[in-house]
Specification:
The structure is a single chain. The chain is mostly beta strands. It contains 1 helix and 10 strands, in the order H-E-E-E-E-E-E-E-E-E-E. Strands 1-2-5-6-7-8-9-10 form an 8-stranded antiparallel beta barrel. The longest helix has 22 residues, at about 1-25.
């Protein structure tokens, strides 16, 4: 009986030693490159402003473009006209279907409709809109909360009449 207990203890000790050797290893500096970014550790006596999560969020907030913007548009085919943008913003997105565009050169040459997709960055906007199923606009602009300068192009059937060009808008009436 004593021999069996001794043998069982020796076997258990051997299994534990083998398990410890397999699961434990020495840590070397070069192991840091192999670390799993989702399974790390972190410790500090006190937080400084640089230790907080805010250091990871260095992106600038999006422009505040909410509201009406109006100004001049110049089309390579139609010449100078006016452009109005009514923008409803939710963070970095323009609200689909609520935001809209209007471009007028004269009573016979115009396009207006909803913005179907749009984004806002820290110094730019971009959007796609539709006047009809046969008339779409793509536009983008850079600037600030006081003025945006941009380019646009029309596509589909109305792209044959409106050749695209540049625009400048400022906050103003719709």
């Amino acid at each position: 009986m004593k021999l069996r207990k001794t043998l069982a203890i020796v076997v258990c000790a051997g299994v534990l030693s083998a398990t410890a050797l397999v699961s434990a290893h020495r840590a070397y500096a070069q192991d840091a490159n192999d670390a799993d970014s989702e399974a790390g550790a972190w410790s500090a006596d006190e937080l400084s402003p640089l230790d907080s999560d805010s250091e990871l969020n260095t992106a600038k907030p999006p422009l505040d473009v909410q509201g009406c913007w109006s100004g001049k548009v110049h089309d390579r085919a139609k010449g100078t006209g006016t452009i109005t943008l009514a923008l409803q913003q939710n963070g970095t997105q323009l609200v689909k279907g609520v935001s809209g565009f209007s471009v007028f050169w004269d009573s016979h040459n115009f396009a207006h409709g909803p913005i179907v997709k749009g984004s806002v960055g820290s110094n730019h906007i971009a959007f796609k809109g539709t006047a009809t199923a046969k008339c779409a606009i793509n536009a983008s602009a850079t600037g600030n909360a006081n003025k945006l300068n941009g380019t646009y192009s029309f596509h589909k059937l109305c792209g044959q009449a409106f050749k695209g060009g540049t625009f400048t808008v400022k906050p103003g009436p719709c």
